């Protein structure tokens, strides 16, 4: 399934549940929201996209704690969780997808190599779910495209799990 097909499936799943969607993006710089809004009719589901590339933007726009950024860094589970929660709180969305990572080619370290991406997925009334992926260092564009794909897949999985848990749409 292509990223476009995944984006369309996610939009349809949100529409069926009657919820809106928002993104909080760092390393992708808006590629997730772009994949969603490339689809005609997405405005019935997409609320907004937060592009929070800098730490200041993460704090100002999403309420990510300066203490979290200092203690764990921008690329961390804690930051991804706070980004997803902040996007949920500061939008009309019922589902938010957050990503923060190191797309390269520089910026990596032994502890946080190029290709490391943290995801945060928030659904209204549910705890934020986080996940980490280490994508192969095959270039910046490769890592960013893989991040978009994985975020869309996580959104679909979160909605499916929520529905399976018996939560009414």
Verbal overview:
The chain has a single domain (3-164), classed as Alpha-Beta Complex (Maf protein), CATH 3.90.950.20. It has six helices and five strands. The chain has helices at 3-17, 31-37, 55-62, 66-72, 77-89, 140-164; strands at 21-25, 46-51, 95-101, 116-123, 129-134. The protein has a five-stranded mixed β-sheet with strand order 2-1-3-4-5, sandwiched between helices. The relative contact order is 0.18. The mean pLDDT is 96.
Which key terms come to mind for this protein?
single chain; 169 residues; alpha/beta; Maf protein; 5 strands; globular
Q: Give the number of DSSP strands.
A: 5
Poorly predicted ranges = none
Query: What is the SS-derived class?
Result: alpha/beta
Question: How much of the sequence is in beta strands?
Answer: 15-25%
Percentage of residues assigned to helices: 40-55%
- CATH architecture, by name, is Alpha-Beta Complex
CATH superfamily: CinA-like
Overall mean pLDDT score?
96
Alpha carbon gyration radius: 15 Å
Helix and strand pattern: HEHEHHHEEEH
| Number of distinct helices | 6
Strand order of the largest sheet: 2-1-3-4-5
CATH topology annotation: Maf protein
Major beta sheet, specifics?
5 strands, mixed
Number of domains: 1
Distance between the termini: 25 Å
What is the CATH level 1 assignment?
Answer: Alpha Beta
GO molecular function: nicotinamide-nucleotide amidase activity
InterPro entries: CinA-like_C, CinA_C
Organism: Mesorhizobium prunaredense
EC number: 3.5.1.42
């Amino acid at each position: 399934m292509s990223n476009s097909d995944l984006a369309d499936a996610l939009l349809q799943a949100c529409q069926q549940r009657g919820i809106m969607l928002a993104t909080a993006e760092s390393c992708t710089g808006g590629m997730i929201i772009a994949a969603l809004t490339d689809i005609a009719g997405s405005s019935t589901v997409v609320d907004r996209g937060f592009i929070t590339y800098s730490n200041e933007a993460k704090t100002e726009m999403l309420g990510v704690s300066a203490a979290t950024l200092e203690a764990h860094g921008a690329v961390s589970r804690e930051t991804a969780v706070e980004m997803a929660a902040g996007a949920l709180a500061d939008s009309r969305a019922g589902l938010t997808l957050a990503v923060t990572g190191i797309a390269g080619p520089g910026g990596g370290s032994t502890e946080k190599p190029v290709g490391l991406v943290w995801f945060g997925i928030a659904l209204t009334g549910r705890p934020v779910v986080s996940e980490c992926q280490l994508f192969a260092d095959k270039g910046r564009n490769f890592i960013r495209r893989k991040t978009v794909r994985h975020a869309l897949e996580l959104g679909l999985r979160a909605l499916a799990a929520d529905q399976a848990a018996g939560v009414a749409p």
